[in-house]
Specification:
globular; Rossmann fold; binds S-adenosylmethionine; alpha/beta; three-stranded antiparallel β-sheet; 9 helices; binds zinc ion
Amino acid sequence: MRWICPHCQHTLQLNAEHKNYRCENNHCFDIAKEGYINLMSANQKKSQNPGDNKAMVQARKQFLAAGFYQNLADKLAEITAQYSPDTNAQILEVGSGEGYYLREINRLFNAKNPKHTAVFSGLDISKDAVKTAAKMSPLQFYSVASSFHMPVMDNSLDIVIRNFAPAPSAEISRVLKDNGKFIVVTPGPKHLYQLRQLIYRQATEHENVLTGIEDFQLIEQVHLQNTINIDKPEQLNALLQMTPYYWQTSKENQEKLNQLQQLECQTDFVISILQKTAV
Ligand SMILES: C[S@@+](CC[C@H](N)C(=O)[O-])C[C@H]1O[C@@H](n2cnc3c(N)ncnc32)[C@H](O)[C@@H]1O
Ligand SMILES: [Zn+2]
C-alpha cells in the first residue's frame, strides 16, 4: 500500500527494522503494536476522538461476528473479486470500522487463488476502530486517517469500498486508477425497518438515492434483502448500540428498547459498482 505523508504528501517508505514509516523529509510514523499507523494530522481532527467510540466499535464487532450481515460480506467479497483486474489488485476500504468486511473479502481471495498478491488496506478516522481491526487482521494494512484527506497516492488503487461510511467523491476519484472501481454500500428502503418502527412513531423507508458519486458512472447495482432473527438480548443490545437511530431516541425509549428480548428484522442493502469517469 502506497501511504503518503500527511504533512508533505511524499511517499512513505516502510522501515521494517525500526518498525516505522518515513518520508524523504524525515517525517516519521511508528507502527503501533497492533500493526497500524496513525496518519491523522492534528489539524484534521475536529474533536479529540473522532469517529466511532470504543463502545460502538465493540458493539459492531460483536454483532457482525454473529453473522447477521454475512450475506452482505459474501456478496461484497464476490463483487470485489469479480471487479479486481488481476491477482495483485490494490484494494482500500474507507471507514473500514473493525475490519469485518475486509477480512471476509481477503478470505475469499485466498480461497480462490492462494497465490494472489492483492493488497487489502483500510482506513478509519476512529483510532479505536483501527486498533481493533489491526489486532484481528494481521494480513491487512490499516491507518487512522480521514476519508476527506486520504494519505494515499494519486491514481494508485484498483478498488475503493465505501460501506455505510462517509467519503467525498473527488477524493475517491483522486486515488483510483483510471479504470478503477468504486463500490458503495448504502441502506435499501427496508433496512432495519422493524427496528426503526420501534424507535420512531412513523418509520419511513430509506430513500434509495445514491449521493457523493459525482465523478463516477454507475455500471451495476445489486439489491440484497434478508430477514434476521435476533433472539439474544446481548446481540439486540449490540445492534442498538451500533445504529445511529438508538442515539437519536429519548432516554425513556432507550430504556424500553433495552428490555426487548427478540426482534425479527429486515435487512436491505444496495451495492453500487461505479467506474471513475475519465477526466
Ligand atoms: C457505520 S460505521 C461502518 C463501519 C464499516 N464500514 C462496517 O460497515 O462495519 C462508519 C465508520 O466510518 C468511520 N468514519 C466516520 N467519519 C469518517 C471519516 N471522515 N473518515 C474515515 N472514517 C470515518 C467511523 O469511525 C465508523 O467506523
Ligand atoms: Zn513528510
